[in-house]
Amino acid sequence: MAGVCVPWSGEACRLFLPIRRRLPVYSTVVSLALPISSSMIVDDNLGSFLEILPRDLRHRLLNDSRRNQLVEVIMDLGRPPEARYLGEPGGQYLRNIEVSMEELEDAQELVGEFGADNRAGIEGTLHRISAIRNRKGFVVGLTCRVGRAVSGHIDMIYDLLHYGKSILFVGRYLLLLLATLCCFISHFFDGGGLNRVLDHRPGVGKTTVLREIARLLSDEFQKRVVIIDTSNEIGGDGDIPHSAIGGARRMQVPKPSLQHKVMTEAVENHMPQVIIVDEIGTEAEALACRSIAERGVMLIGTAHGEQLQNIIKNPTLSDLIGGIETVTLGDEEARARRSQKSILERKAPPTFYFLIEMRERDYWIAHQTEKSVDMLLRGRNPMVEVRKRDEEFKVVIERWKSYDGQGI
């Protein structure tokens, strides 16, 4: 049984061995501190972002004491421009004068070309500009979101990245970009590598995590990493990717509907050891993930969801966790299981070995996908690992917690 080496602040690694027990099972609590050398570095290229805004908005935001918490600026034709800040409900009008068509056209000239998904960027940055069009195709609204490259919390998953298999992240806490940087995933149960799917609702900050993982795997682990960047969110706009992804290579996708083809092309043409893909959402992409994983390539991906049960019930994405099929049991087997004759079972090994539910900014639930799926399909509560931060910013790990899908 493999142990896991977890770095403790100011000390050498301590080795934790997974414990296999029969019921009753008691949860174990371990408190971890980030190494003293850890620090969070934020690069937001805010100046480039403000350049696309009208001059009066630029001046106001430059002198705003909350500019470091700025999430996005909304510019809709015929309405006052609005700013939204991290951790604040709603938005705040930046002026009383309504946005004009000329201001929208000026902003469009300063950003890259809009793709089929109506998204564009500012070259050399991670900022994202999304357009709203009228029935004639003219832009009548812009959502200008600040993109920040944040590094310094990768220590939380450093040991997990050594394995080389799969993880799926699902999350319900709808904070934006910066809110999810900390307390990521960890070591888990017993050995075996890891493809990763970060599976959660939009806007949780998963893209920030992908950038940092790409940098770490390419620069420190010396892996051949290829990013499938459908909307240029991970590597930024322009032909030269942002430095936040380190030495990872980036393949751009002409249309979102072609993402699965570019994934396959990356494996066939460029011999990657790791593929990173954002927002797996179609059956073709799920099948491409399985094909890539079967070739021994490490996958790190994201998909929209809330909890493991959502992925199980989603016919499009269920293949990521092994797929679900109806099986008819014989009379003796049904009696032995004390179940109905027709039951649901997992039909194949999961594409992604682990699944992480991102419940809140500092509260995560870690599953071993195969075991948790099987237990849930049998109507039982799987054992999971809870990761959270205490008031001193230390990571507290609660192992072998019974999962009910709600209370933990």
From TrEMBL:
Gene3D superfamilies: P-loop containing nucleotide triphosphate hydrolases. Residues 192-349 form the AAA+ ATPase domain. InterPro entries: AAA+_ATPase, P-loop_NTPase, Spore_III_AA_AAA+_ATPase. The keyword Cell cycle does not apply. CDD domains: AAA. Keywords: ATP-binding, Nucleotide-binding. The keyword Cell division does not apply. GO terms for molecular function: ATP binding. This is AAA+ ATPase domain-containing protein. It comes from Thlaspi arvense (Field penny-cress). The lineage of its organism: Eukaryota, Viridiplantae, Streptophyta, Embryophyta, Tracheophyta.
